[in-house]
Amino acid sequence: MATLPPLLGSTVGSAPDTSLGGRDTPGHRGRVGDPLYGIRRVLRRGADTLTDRAWDRLLAGLDTGDAGGQVAAAWIAAQYLRLLYRAPTVPAPRNCTTASSCTAPTHMSPS
User: Fold this and answer.
1) How far apart are CA 73 and CA 80, in angstroms?
2) Among 22, 29, 39, 84, which residue is least crowded by beta carbons within 10 Å?
3) How far is CA 13 from each of CA 5, 9, 10, 19, 91, rounded to the nearest angstrom?
4) pLDDT tens sequence across 13-43
């Protein structure tokens, strides 16, 4: 029997892997009842384009579906990156010992 690379984790001709890969339920992520799936399009927009209703949806979805704060942190990082791409000049690099000691310059703060 031929063996596949360890990354694929099975052999040719063996039974298919039926584990859920760390998920609690089978099937696709999203659809009914998934708050992050419900705000997926809002997450792709820039903070400067969000309406009051969109902000409410974003905050409610993150409160409900992002217990660890990972999606919120990624969205905030994406907003800073959008601001950097729009900046007429690139700010000078700073020495940061930790991520928490680095803050965005005041002209880059979203309003």
Assistant:
1) 11
2) 22
3) 14, 12, 9, 17, 57
4) 666 656 655 556 555 655 778 899 999 999 9
